[in-house]
Automatic annotation (TrEMBL):
Residue intervals passing through the bilayer: 12-37, 72-95, 107-128, 148-168, 212-239, 259-283
The name this protein goes by in its record: Trehalose transport system permease protein SugA
Organism: Maliponia aquimaris
Coiled-coil blocks: none
Domain of life (superkingdom): Bacteria
Cellular component terms per the entry's GO annotation: plasma membrane
Any single biological process term in GO: transmembrane transport
Matches recorded under InterPro entries: ABC_transporter_permease, MetI-like, MetI-like_sf
Signal peptide coordinates: none
Subcellular localization, as worded in the UniProt entry: Cell membrane
Amino acid sequence: MATQHSRSAARLMMAPAVILLLGWMLVPLVMTLWFSFRNYFPLRPDREPSFAGFDNYVRFISSSSFWPSIQATLIIVGGALLITVIFGVLLGILLNQPMWGQGMVRILVIAPFFVMPTVSALVWKNMFMDPTNGLLAHLWRFFGADPVVWVSDASLVSIIMIVSWQWLPFATLILLTAIQSLDGEQLEASEMDGAPVLKRFWYIILPHLSRAITIVILIETIFLLSIFAEIFVTTGGAFGSRTLTYLIYQRVLESQNVGLGSAGGVYAIILANIVAIFLMRIVGKNLDA
């Protein structure tokens, strides 16, 4: 049993790391809040910093692009989560089966997660989604259909496809690990009792994966709410693909006002916390089950 002296020593040794972590988290947050109440133009020396109050917040939320950007953000997050979870479960089950070169196949499936977002967006835009020479255009022509101009005609779908390709390996890795922890004797017993494949999946495998699925949803959502490079490279925020993060970037460039962008950042923090609280309630229910 740890004594009072050992607990005090442990707290003392952990204190520098905790202080550094709190500073790393709180200092940018406090600076964002501070600048959000000011007009600050670092690239315009002719404009002096001044106190703005809530004007930056009112200007940002009253923009006609604010609510469409929230909608686009939630559509991209929801679409990417749906694709990565469904196909992550299927790929996890598939990769858990004995096959030749199983280790190499797993590495190839996980590899896209290590590709930089800018690189993957460029590859998808130029090699797959180009309406003239893209692979999808050739596929459409093979079946006698007109190629789709993905970036303009299906901008949100394009971004969801790119982001899902990036995050599918992460979901597959987490879910494959969860599948490998499933008791094989339970599956063998259900198979001997004559349970069909779909019922074994629905009543045994899927409940076992519930915790892993909720963790995948939570972690992916945190990162997907702030996607930027994929939009910057493909659509440039046009054609209804402007998310809240990209709207903040555009507002700062247009006004050169860091305060206005900081107010948008506070709105982004509020949105992220609302989504995180909602997801944490789901995670808590699954963990308590």
